[in-house]
User: Fold Circularly permuted ATP-grasp type 2 domain-containing protein from Crateriforma conspicua.
Amino acid sequence: MSTEPESSWQSQSQSSSGDTAADAHPRGPTSQSLPRLIDYDPGEFFDELVDENSVARPDVEVLVEMINQISGENLARRQRAIERAMYRMGITFTVYSDSRGTEKIMPFDIIPRVVPAILWHHIEAGLKQRIGALNRFLSDVYGPQNIINDGVIPRELVDTSKDFRPQCIGLTPPNGVWCHITGTDLIRDSSGTVYVLEDNLRCPSGVSYVLQNRAVMKKNFPQLFDASRVRPVNDYPARLYNTLLSMAPEGVQNPVVAVLTPGVYNSAYYEHSFLAQQMGAELVEGRDLMVKDDRVYMRTTEGLQQVHVIYRRVDDLFLDPEVFREDSVLGVAGLMRAYRAGNIALANAPGTGIADDKVIYAYVPKMIEYYLGETPILENVPTYVCLDEDDRRHVLDNLDTLVVKAANESGGYGILIGPHATPAEREKFGELIRENPRNYIAQPTLSLSRVPTLVGESLEGRHVDLRPYILCRSPTDVDVIPGGLTRVALKRGSLVVNSSQGGGSKDTWVVANPGEETAST
Assistant:
């Protein structure tokens, strides 16, 4: 990599097509004219930036040219400056188990992940289909339970889920939508095929990093950004706010929206405060609210003010001590009474966590077929349900090749990556599965796609996933933000991308088709 400044290449090719497949570019440069990424070995994995010969894939040639022209020392210097700026801005998360200190910045990698337009439209269609089926499932499972009565999903799986809330049976959320805000984790395998790895419907986190990653990249690489025709994400707070306003009780002229946080010691508190500030909404804790006559009020210096919509970042069990955990001090007594009365809207609706259960996840393709009569656009990762005797036998016989996950864990915890585990670790998980088979699923160990990542002053391939964010205002009004949180496993060979396990993040650039809006600097 040379040390030429960014401005030296800003006038180079800016016209590559954005409506092509990830590995085809019929209207743009030929493969012979595409640049090669210097001093980078993609290895034997599917690399999203370059092909097996380190030649730029379509839509990323300007980015590859920039990387080739900026020295590794310069890239590392810029990255350190960005991370210092993030820390000064308070862009942190909390790792309670780390004895070296709980307050961390999410490590940021300066090389963006690029998603071609045609691939993004495939992802977008698949996510809209999926959230449509999941919302119908939630209405059904807390209502007539037709999917259970028809034998599509075993009743035992629902009744034994730790996140099934009998208290929510009979609820009717605003607009018939249970899940208004979703973060769905996607991966690509060795062929580049996109799979859904996990659904996050309760309190999906991470969107603040999407917005801040974009802000620092635009500031540090303005010409590159403009040349790459990247779709915007900065309007997410406005889209989120409009989604919340659409949920307000009927007849309310000027709805008051609040973000309910567990407080400053929560691992995602930065995000709660950031989103409230960006939306112009109130940031409240449970102690700031009270219920009177089945209406929710906020305590202010001028007296009580009614609240009409709550974006809650508090888990179900702590929402209302009258209904869930009676020892909770994070929620609001009477909140569920106000909710059932239709005087307050909650995003997401209580009870959505059952759709996060990793065992229920295995049945989402069947939900799509059952509720929509459609073939899934985005497939699940092949999944073995350990409660099933045949599946369990296969898992126990092949622990050395499988990834085993606990049904209700997150953050990279409760997971066994068989090929990287010791015999003792595999034996321990085998015992756990035999003791409680309902709590475990297993999946094949996929060769996750990689993206060039700055390690020291050189580039190395690191595995990534992607969490796009979906806003749902009604069954027919679903909005997928063009991009999402790319998480990267910074440790060589690691498949664990979670920030609590040492993972970092990248800015995600979705390429715009002709006529689509692009982000400006």
The chain has a mean pLDDT of 90. The domain at 386-445 is CATH 3.30.1490.270 (Dna Ligase; domain 1). DSSP finds 14 helices and 23 strands in the chain. The longest strand covers residues 458-467.
